[in-house]
Predict the structure of Phosphoribosyltransferase domain-containing protein.
Amino acid sequence: MAKPYFAESCDMLSQWLRKCIHHTFHGQCDLCRLPIQSLNQTCWCHFCQDLMQELHQCKRCGLPVVTSTNQCGHCLSSPPLWSQLYCVGQYCPPLSTYIHKLKHGKQFWQAKSLAQLLATKVSNTPDSITFVPLHWRRQLTRGFNQSELLADELAKLLHVPIEYGLFTRLKATKQQQGLSQQQRRTNVHNAFQIHKSVQGRHIAIVDDVVTTGETINQLVKLLLMRGAKSVDVYCICRTSISDD
C-alpha cells in the first residue's frame, strides 16, 4: 500500500526542522547541551542516551528485572501472546518527556530520534512492521498517529516494509489511562479488525507506550489467527504503571 500523504509531509517537516536545530545549536545535545559529533543518529549525546535506557529487562515482557533474562518468573508462569518485546526504557523522565512532546506537543520530528534509540535494541528483524491504529475520529482530532510515525521511522532504519492499513479500529474506545487491567481488557475487546492474511510471517507491532499490554494482545491474537509465525512488540516505553 502506498505511503500516506500525511506521513510524507511529516518526513519533509522533520528533515527541515532537524536542519534548523542543527544550525541553531551547532550539534548540541537536546538534554544537556553538551556538543555531540553528529545529529545523524539522535539529538542526544551518548551519556544522555544511556540515561534513558533500561539496563536490565525481561526479553519476553520488557519489564525491568535485576539481571537481563529471556523470561522472568511471571512470563514462565503466564507468558504473553507475543514472542518478544523490545523497548528503550521505563515511562519516566527524560524519556517520557519526549513521548509527551511527540504525542501531545505535535513535535513529529521526535519520532526519528526515538525510533533510532529503539532500533539499536532489535536483534531479530521481522518480515514487516505495523502499528497500533487509532479510531478515525481520534486520528482526525489529533491529526496523526504517533505509533505510525514511529513505525515508519523504524521500517526505514531496519530496512523492512511497513504494513499500512493492516488493522482497523472499529470502536472509539475510552482512553486506557486510569483504567484497571480488567477494564482495559473489556475496553478493547473486539475493538480491531484485520484485513489480510499474514501466513507464515514474522510481524512486529509498534506502539509508543505499553502498560498492561491489553491493546497489543488484541492485535497479536488477530495476527496469530491469520497465520502469523510470530509477533514481536516494539515500544519506546514499557511500564506496569497506568501512564499511557
Summary: The mean pLDDT is 84. The beta strands are 84-89, 128-131, 167-169, 192-194, 202-210, 230-238. DSSP finds nine helices and six strands in the chain.
